[in-house]
TrEMBL record:
The keyword RNA-binding does not apply. Its EC number is 3.6.4.12. This is DNA helicase-2/ATP-dependent DNA helicase PcrA. It is an enzyme of class 3 (hydrolase). The keyword ATP-binding applies. It comes from Paenibacillus sediminis. One of its GO terms (molecular function) is DNA helicase activity.
Length: 721
């Protein structure tokens, strides 16, 4: 065994040296071509191509590839080793097999989809399905041109029938640096299927915590850009994420995959930009505090709460009917007379407006009708008896066209919206019956907000939709592909609205219902989203394997889901075992001293990221103050920061979504902080699943019923010996 490892290592070292020499040679050649700085367009294009080549060669030089697959195509073709890397490198000799194959190339899919066994494997090439036998799947770790590790995860001629997880487990066991990383070397078959799914489909992905949703979405963008380079461009792709800090946290992955310029935004920023609004929305801390911190007097969650109603398709339909009613009444109530003796009847204008220009949005319809009137005037002018008369008519007509145009009502999204909620003195143009679907509590709270000129996040889909109905969208507002992360917190209205801005329903929508802690505005079932698309426009995938945490943490968190949420969306762990979860009672010692002791013990283990999760922001602040005053280098995450600082942190559990830490201390995992309520169970689930290697739950006297009440296979009680 050791011998064969030795020879594999030597073989790969030799191959690596040869590859580096070749890449260096190619790079040198490109560097020796003088950079073109002139104005000739063709030369500029060629120079851009050379520059991109220089950059990709330079990138591949440090770590040319990470995997090798030996494949023999059916039909007696020769077995050959394929080396797979983040960037493809061709041989300079035409017709020779590539030196390195880009991980996104069709043949590279074998590296990911092959799950072992003796059967032939196949991949979809442009010329059709190619079948053959895989002989070897090898993971290769190269750092700064040095070969560090060679691990065979499948060897047909060895004694392993299935692909082993050894390399994956080694990778997952590493401590976290500050940001999310790429996973090109260990993408799993079920993830690869999503990454390579066809472009014009609204993919909906339910994935358990830690199943790689965010990571997979980023890899999918890189794949789409490679596979459909003629049809999509990076600037026309966008990722929506819950907040700026999260966007910052994931911001290293795409550049690492050699992809730049993809837009990253929150829904709020995107909407405000379309609306040209620059008013700050009120801090949603009140909303968060209302829903998350009101433990004594827990609000009731129904479809009539503002977030749910304003995110519903019935609200979207109401808006459409309201704007349509306005449209019908917007043609001025008179005939048009450009000068005495000439009249264009209102009926004709109405016909143009209602029939010929009906498909256009209101602003464009008005524009078209006015242009049509102008053309009619020009025809009429030809009937003038002489030039002087014609001049006089022309002058009069021009004034009257202007004044007629002024009679069309001018609509603004916000005015219409305010009218719908009767927040303006101007009477609403719609019948009481039409508006009666707005629940009373929504009407009252929104009316009072709008009277104070306060807009909330939940009002934005409606405003953007009104804007769209009035003005349409411009071509630069259209997207080639949209990724929505944490999509369980999006509403059906938001998705239906975004669908108007994306070509071919090209969506990747990812989320986890078990982490639906914003259920007062998000969806409760994926059906709410899939029903927005025709069956052939959408596809559903479920990711059930969780990669982030150790087996013990995953099983512990599954227990919370089973008992507290009664969910069957349980995670399947990768076989990576660690320490059991620790349940530690405060006992006679103060809560602060207990937390400090836990922090000390975990910091001593030299984890790069340790985090304390509190139930409320106030508690996070107080704890942060206490620890900072005691000299700890730990920062507070309070939702206001745009940058993710990494390191050791303290934050309320609801802000921890999407993030991960080597070790997590959950503070106050007791009943008066986390009640026996599904929502609290989800919050704790989110908190627990942030931990990669170690999870400690500190608590007062009574723990909620969904936590294990005594020691078991995955959890132990008390401090470590
Ligand atoms: N195939 C893989 N190989 C190695 N690491 C992986 C793989 N898939 C996921 N991971 C790791 O698992 C962790 C979780 O990934 P990610 O944050 O993308 O999951 P998620 O499903 O979005 O999680 P959550 O919903 O809990 O926020 C990350 O550290 C990621 O690098």
């Amino acid at each position: 065994m050791a011998e064969s490892f030795q020879s594999a290592y030597q073989e790969e070292e030799k191959r690596l040296n040869a590859a580096i020499a070749e890449i260096n040679r190619q790079l040198e050649r490109f560097r020796n071509i003088p950079v073109y700085t002139g104005h000739d367009f063709t030369e500029q294009v060629l120079e851009a191509a050379r520059e991109s080549k220089r950059q990709s060669l330079a990138k591949s030089l440090a770590e040319p590839y990470f995997g090798r697959l030996d494949f023999e195509e059916a039909g007696g073709k020769q077995r050959r080793p394929l080396y797979i890397g983040k960037v493809g490198v061709d041989q300079e000799e035409v017709g020779e097999a590539p030196l390195v194959i880009d991980w996104r190339a069709p043949i590279a899919s074998l590296f990911y989809s092959f799950t072992g066994g003796q059967d032939p494997a196949s991949y979809e090439a442009p010329e059709g399905m190619i079948e053959g036998l895989v002989y070897l799947k090898r993971n290769i770790v190269i750092r700064k041109q040095i070969l560090e590790r060679v691990v065979d995860t499948f060897n047909r001629e060895g004694d392993q029938p299935a692909v082993s997880d050894e390399f994956l487990v080694y990778r997952l066991g590493e401590n976290k640096d500050n940001r999310l990383r790429d996973i090109v070397s260990t993408i799993q078959a079920e993830q690869d299927q999503i990454i390579r799914a066809a472009r014009n489909t609204a993919l909906i992905i339910q994935g358990v915590a830690g199943s790689g949703k965010t990571t997979v979405a980023l890899h999918r963008l890189a794949y789409l850009l490679y596979q459909y380079k003629e049809q999509v461009s990076a600037e026309k792709m966008i990722i929506f994420a819950p907040n700026h800090m999260f966007l910052d946290y994931i911001s290293d992955v795409l550049p690492e995959l050699g992809v730049g310029d993809i837009q990253q935004s929150t829904f709020v920023d995107w909407a405000m930009n379309i609306l040209h609004l620059d008013v700050p929305l009120p801090d949603n801390k009140d909303t968060l505090a209302y829903w998350f911190e009101n433990i004594e007097d827990r609000p009731k969650l129904t479809d009539d709460v503002p977030g749910r109603f304003k995110g519903s398709i019935s609200f979207m339909k109401l808006i459409r009917s309201c704007v349509e009613t306005l449209e019908e009444a917007s043609v001025p109530d008179t005939d048009f007379s450009p000068w005495e003796g000439a009249t264009l009847p209102r009926d004709t204008i109405l016909r143009w407006f209602n029939e010929e220009y009906k498909p256009y949005p209101l602003a464009k319809r008005k524009e078209r009708v006015m242009a049509r009137i102008h053309r009619w005037v020009e025809m009429e002018l030809k009937k003038a008896p002489n030039a002087a008369k014609q001049k006089e008519w022309k002058k009069r007509a021009s004034q009257r066209e202007k004044s007629y145009a002024g009679k069309w009502p001018h609509y603004e999204p916000l005015t219409i919206y305010k009218q719908m909620f009767k927040a303006l003195k101007l009477p609403a143009s719609w019948s009481e019956e039409m508006l009666s679907i707005i629940p009373k509590q929504v009407l009252q709270s929104t009316q009072s907000d709008l009277k104070n000129n306060t807009l909330r996040e939940e009002d934005l889909p409606a405003l953007v939709y009104i804007h769209y109905l009035l003005n349409d969208r411009t071509s630069d507002q259209m997207f080639d592909h949209v990724v929505i992360d944490e999509a369980q917190d999006f509403s059906p209205f938001q998705i239906a609205l975004l669908d108007l801005f994306v070509r071919g329903h090209s969506f990747t929508i990812l989320g986890d219902l078990s982490q639906g802690i914003h259920a007062y505005r998000g969806i409760h079932d994926w059906q709410e989203m899939s029903s927005l698309f025709k069956p052939d426009q959408t596809a559903y995938y479920a990711l059930t394997r969780s990669y982030r945490s150790t087996m013990e943490i995953i099983e512990f968190a599954n227990g919370i889901l089973e008992r507290g949420v009664r969910s069957d969306l349980l995670a399947v762990p990768v076989f990576r075992s660690g320490d059991p979860v620790r349940l530690i009672g405060y006992g006679q010692v103060s809560r602060e001293d207990n937390l400090r002791r836990a922090l000390d013990q975990l910091l001593a283990k030299e984890y790069r990221t340790v985090s304390i999760l509190t139930r409320t922001l106030k508690e996070a602040r107080e704890m942060h103050h206490f620890l900072s005053a005691s000299g700890y280098d730990i920062h507070l995450i309070d939702g206001s920061k745009k940058q993710y600082e990494g390191g050791h942190s303290i934050l309320p559990v609801y802000l921890s979504k999407g993030l991960e830490f080597d070790a997590v201390i959950v503070a106050d995992a007791n009943k008066n902080h986390y009640d026996d309520h599904e929502w609290d169970a989800k919050l704790l689930y989110v908190g627990c699943t942030r931990a990669l290697h170690e999870l400690w739950m500190l608590h007062g006297d009574e723990v909620p019923s969904y936590l294990p009440q005594e020691e078991g296979e995955f959890a132990v009680t008390g401090w470590p010996e």
